[in-house]
Amino acid sequence: MKTCGATLAGADLSGIDLNKQSVIQGVVLAEGSGDGVPNGTPITTGYARLLDKDGEFTAEVPLNGQGQFRFFAAPGKWTVRILAPGATTDREVLAVVGTAVDLTIPL
Amino acid sequence: MSRATALVTADWVQENLSNPKVVLVEVDEDTSLYEKNHIEGASTFHWRNDLQDGVIRDIVSKDKFELLLSKHGISNDSTVVLYGGNNNWFATYAYWYFKVYGHADVRILDGGRKKWELDGRALTSATPNRTATRYVAKERDLSIRAFRDEVINSIGVKNIVDVRSPAEFKGELLAPAHLPQEGGQIAGHIPTAKNIPWSQAANDDGTFKADADLRSLYANAGVDYAKETIAYCRIGERSAFSWFVLHELLELGNVKNYDGSWTEYGSLVGAPVEIGA
């Protein structure tokens, strides 16, 4: 699977009222072709973990068959931690109401 | 119970995959992961379809629990090993059911499905074909289950442990952040409750922390081990995880799971509620 900047990374947002929810979502991809860009195959065995601004666990979901994950968070600073066999990576994000945070995370 | 009798390692499960006395069951809120793959020989329970009454809000009846276990080939003398995703929330919830209905030998796979996957251990899509049994459950043991009136009367008297995330405790979220925000009518927590998130009892890979660390965790947060304890969350599954830690691993005698939890308490007219830290 290849991605480009104009494509939403996470799952389809239809049916979700972004005026009421602060969505953090994304896709985890293998680095791919050695060019430093996460454009390889989706990582489907792994977990996305959401930590609050104090580092406390808030939620965790398994990556789906497309390497995607989604959280419904409150507005504010969060950390998304990806756990996969042999690898862990963190991303700090700022969630707001109205616009989904959409991440493409290389692993 | 103790760590030695309530918990098994992934290595132990691996060594007992062919043991006919051992029955593995994957328990979760979403069994599509089981359909994809699971540990060899494992059956599956869906926390709502298999473990809820389905008409009234209650745990499944004794008759239905017996039918469920019989259908999956579980005998009264089976060693049942429960595991699941979500850091074993629903597996420990099912464990609590097995204790409510008096099963003798039930255990949790430490780390659950996540640890098994992160270890790179084998999974299969083949479903088991065990011969049905005639399981006979005991009457419900309510000494490990709290109801709403006891909870209200326990404010300022017993330890009340809110195991949800700090954001839910403070009233900023109504549900865990991977779920749509629905649940109780209002947000907040039960007055005098200590917020000790279930996650503080677990490592990143889903395994339980060491007993000494667990004992310090609750004591440092203000739990008085000389008092009775009630654990709650949103629907009673994360609190089953913490109930498992307190009652089974730390062997504290008087610990109850309030499975009505915030979806019930946060909808009670006139019940006292606090918000903020």
Low-confidence stretches of chain B: none
Unreliable sequence segments of chain A = 1-8
Q: What's the shape of chain B?
A: globular
**Class by SSE composition of chain B:** alpha/beta
- Output the strand order for the largest sheet of chain A: 3-2-5-6
Total of helices of chain A: 0
Number of DSSP E strands of chain B: 9
CATH architecture of the largest domain in chain B: 3-Layer(aba) Sandwich
**In CATH terms, what is the fold-level topology of chain A?**
Immunoglobulin-like
Q: Helix proportion of residues of chain B, in percent?
A: 25-40%
- What Rg of chain B is obtained from the alpha carbons, in whole angstroms? 18 Å
Write a concise synopsis of the structure shown.
The complex is a heterodimer of chains A (107) and B (277). Chain A is mostly beta strands.
Structure, described:
The complex is a heterodimer of chains A (107) and B (277). Chain A is 0% helix and 46% strand. Chain A is an all-beta fold. Chain A has a single domain (22-106), classed as Immunoglobulin-like, CATH 2.60.40.10. In chain A, the strands form 2 sheets. A 4-stranded antiparallel beta sheet of chain A has the order 3-2-5-6, with no helix packed on it. In chain A, strands 4-1-7 form a 3-stranded mixed beta sheet, with no helix packed on it. Chain B has 277 residues and is of the alpha/beta class. Chain B has 2 domains: 3-140, Oxidized Rhodanese, domain 1; 143-265, Oxidized Rhodanese, domain 1 (3-Layer(aba) Sandwich), CATH 3.40.250.10. In chain B, helix 5 (89-100) links the parallel strand 4 and strand 5. The longest helix of chain B is centred in the middle third of the chain and has 12 residues, at 89-100. Chain B is globular, with a radius of gyration of 18 Å. The model of chain B has no long low-confidence stretch (mean pLDDT 95).
List the helices and strands and how they pair.
The complex is a heterodimer of chains A (107) and B (277).
Chain A: E1 22-29, E2 47-51, E3 57-62, E4 68-73, E5 76-84, E6 87-95, E7 101-106
Parallel strand pairs in A: 1-7
Antiparallel strand pairs in A: 1-4, 2-3, 2-5, 5-6
Chain B: H1 3-6, E1 7-8, H2 10-15, E2 22-28, H3 32-36, E3 43-46, H4 62-71, E4 79-83, H5 89-100, E5 106-109, H6 112-118, H7 148-153, E6 159-162, H8 166-170, E7 194-195, H9 211-220, E8 229-232, H10 238-249, E9 255-257, H11 261-265
